[in-house]
Amino acid sequence: VTMGQYTNLFVPSFETDQDEEVERKTEMQTLNGGGGGVWRFKGNKAAKEAASVSMKGILSRLFENCSRDGKKTILPLGHCDPIVYPCFKTSIVHCMLYIFETIHHLYCYLYTPRAVANYLNSDLPHKLKSDDIFMTIGCCQGIETMIQVLSSPKSNILLSSLVYPLYHSYAIHDLVEIRKYELLPDQDWEIDLQSVEAIADHNTVAMVICNPHNPCGNVYTYHHLKKVAEMARKLGIMVISDEVFKETIYGKNPFVPMGIFASIIPVVTLGSISKGWLVPGWRIGWMAMNDPSNVFKTTGVVESIKHLLNISPDPSTILQFALPNILEKTKKDYFEKKNLTLSQNVDMMFDALKEIPCLVCPKKPESCTSLVTKLDLSLLEDITDDVDFCMKLAREENLVLLPGEVFGKNNWVRISIGVERSMLQDVFGEREIYLRESDDKYKNCVGNVVNAS
């Protein structure tokens, strides 16, 4: 499938009819015993269910709906991987230089966790030590580890109604019940504290917050986070704070780490260099135990984390050795340049969406590499939900947006702004989604799109 000028983008390969036939025959052979007997093994169905709510799974389905004739360039605004675009390649060059320097000088930092602690301590009143840091293969392993630590009969965790889907997938796979609390889009996407208390019970063990929030793009204030901490203390639960976007802020609200409130409630901070330094494939991250009262040790949480990491691979040794240089020597202007580009893209996208009545963005993002919009079905014709909308858009216009169902919220859409400005201009230029007014009602033209050209 042609990507036009965006030839550096990864697009999943299409499943062919031949692939489907092979899969069908293989399934029949398994059921019939294949070699004459009955096979006593089969794949884990839990993996399929967990993958069905994953971002990769949904994106693959969307790309399969794109045209194969090569006449239209695919516009992948469902991805959030800025590194593939030239305008976002400032930080990675310096990160690579630090790695080469590490190899050249045999720079062996045996205490990489200390560098992470120092990096985080600049914002914390209760200083972290090396023993409080656990290195992980990106933030993803941190999420997986914490879900596994909390997995026990009848336990449940609280996730926001819009949440990074990997939390959902791991919880399904590890048989941890998920309960969703609401966010308030009209109040800067703050956490609805009343909804948290309403869904929590004696089996609730933790709540997950994302700050800055992915995908909403808001940055929580000190005042709001303190209320969250006090409520969690009342409920007797820990807070897992996903802070991978802390270096990707371009709005007015400053970043406040949840670890500031560790004297009120124990906090596990998840982080990585993937988003801030634009190196998502490098897979090096951390879990930080903000816990001056040693609650995590007395409850066995730290011991459980150590056991789980002992049966998991470690992050790349070379990257661990280079991480102190990356954290300590990266200058602020690298982040400022990246964030300025994102801010300009957000301004353009936010203004353009005002001209599309069926897509309502309640708040301009202040962080992250995407924005979310509410899909107003009452203004659409022959569209059943957000998945239907995105599938038809991909099939007819090769424009890939991500349905809100992936993040747990139906009839919302996530649009990536971490792309070249020219791609956004293409989306809102030659292939803008036109809405026509008929009988005082806007009707969707997906299915009968008019090209500006």
Strand content: 15-25%
Please mark out the parts with pLDDT under 50 across 5 or more consecutive residues, or reply none: 1-16, 433-453
Rg estimate, integer Å: 23 Å
Q: Please state the structural category.
A: alpha/beta
- What would you call the shape? globular
Distance between the termini: 22 Å
Strand tally: 17
How much is the average pLDDT? 82
The percent range for helix content is 25-40%
Our count of helices gives 15
- What is the strand arrangement across the widest sheet? 2-10-9-8-7-3-4
Please characterize this protein's 3D structure:
The model is unreliable at 1-16 and 433-453 (pLDDT under 50). The chain has helices at 17-32, 45-52, 55-64, 91-104, 112-121, 138-150, 165-173, 193-199, 222-235, 295-298, 301-310, 317-329, 332-353, 386-397, 421-427, and strands at 75-76, 133-136, 156-160, 177-181, 183-184, 190-191, 204-210, 238-242, 267-272, 285-290, 359-360, 370-375, 399-400, 402-403, 412-416, 435-438, 441-444. It is α/β, with parallel strands linked by helices. The chain has a 7-stranded mixed β-sheet, sandwiched between helices. Strands 11-12-15-14 form a 4-stranded antiparallel β-sheet. Its cofactor is pyridoxal 5'-phosphate.
